[in-house]
Amino acid sequence: MYKNTSLFVYTVFSDYCLISGKLQLFRQLFLVFNMSIGTNELLSYLNQLLNSKDIKDYCPNGLQVEGKPEIQRVVSGVTACQALVDRAADEKADAILVHHGYFWKGEPAEVVGMKKRRLQQLLKHDINLFAYHLPLDVHPELGNNAQLAKLMGWQFEGAVEPSDPACPLVTGRLTEPMSCEDFSSLLEQRLQRRLVCRVDGLNDIKRVAWCTGGGQGFIDRAAQLGVDAFITGEVSEPTIHSAREQGIAFFAAGHHATERYGAKALGEHLASHFGLDVQFIDIDSPA
Ligand SMILES: [Zn+2]
To answer: Which one of 82, 109, 174, 216 has the lowest number of neighbouring Cβ atoms within 10 Å?
Structure first.
């Protein structure tokens, strides 16, 4: 709705300025109508909102690649893969906002091959790349964990380790107990994909623990909590045995699918807070 209204005002006003020869006036007011923000101002806002300074991570959080100094159009997505960068360039975006950016701890530092092509495309189009990894998993309202709870209708209880701002394991409750069969059907329906794998537990499901993405390493901690089920994106070989032997239901629902909703919610927040033109682009992945 906002986008259409703003486009309408923009079109009428630009036509008026063109016809009446007031191009200078148009240029000055253009920024007001489209509501842009300085790159550094947006960076400070995001860093503060997502508490990124206090969260230790495996990658830099914030502005990973600098582009234009002023931002009007933003593309949000899960991963800054080549396809997303190309789409953002097609859309003439000034910034990309993702959960999975670049420069992971331990990756080769050389700018060659795939890394060169991604960076070259960003730099060629002067597109800023903002990436927030753990800070965007754990944010209590806009984070992947909180957004998954909202999508599934779980009552969000909060982080298992409230004293550790980087802890991405959280718990919640279902409004009604549910069989493992019904629970997995609902997951598949809401996430619009088949589960990666499923281990049924001993009980109907009332209380759950989850960690979006690659959180399978938390299954033993979840079992210690006495919850009925643990949900994450991925599975490893030992995860299945942990679930079977500790009687906890386990659902791997897709790394990408469980992490679609944080970047989307953060983008929508920026659109309503600053009036930026934000578009979520889902580059689907079976992972
Ligand atoms: Zn992830």
So the answer is: 109
What pLDDT score was predicted for residue 1? 45
Q: Domain tally for the chain?
A: 3
Residue 33 has pLDDT above 90, yes or no: no
| 264 in the same domain as 249 | no
User: Ligand 1 mean position to 259 CA, how many Å?
Assistant: 6
Q: Is residue 287 part of a domain?
A: no
Do you know the residue count of the chain? 287
173 CB-contact burial (10 Å; exposed 0-12 / middle 13-18 / buried 19+): middle
| DSSP tag of 117 | H
Cα–Cα distance, 284 to 144 (Å, whole number): 16
| Domain membership flag for residue 203 | yes
Q: Which domain holds residue 9?
A: 1-34
> Residue 63 pLDDT more than 70?
yes
Question: What's the gap in Å between 211 CA and the centre of ligand 1?
Answer: 10
In a domain, 248, yes or no: yes
Q: How many angstroms separate the alpha carbon of residue 217 from the centre of ligand 1? A: 13
Which residues neighbour ligand 1 (ion) by CB within 5 Å?
213, 259
Same domain, 179 and 235: yes
Same domain, 150 and 225: yes
Contact criterion met (CB below 8 Å) for 192 and 286:
no
Per-residue pLDDT, averaged over 26-51, amounts to 82
The CATH number of the domain holding residue 129 is 3.40.1390.30
CA of 253 to the centre of ligand 1 (A): 13
Number of Cβ atoms within 10 Å of the Cβ of 56: 9
Taking the centre of ligand 1 as the mean of its atom positions, its distance from the CA of residue 214, in whole angstroms, is: 6
pLDDT tens digit sequence for 178-193? 999 999 999 999 999 9
Q: How far is the CA of 257 from the centre of ligand 1 (A)?
A: 10
Ligand 1: distance of its center to the CA of 137 in Å?
Answer: 8
Rounded to the nearest angstrom, the distance between the alpha carbon of 138 and the centre of ligand 1 is 12
For 91, phi then psi, to 5°, come to: -80, 0
Residue 285 belongs to some domain of the structure: no
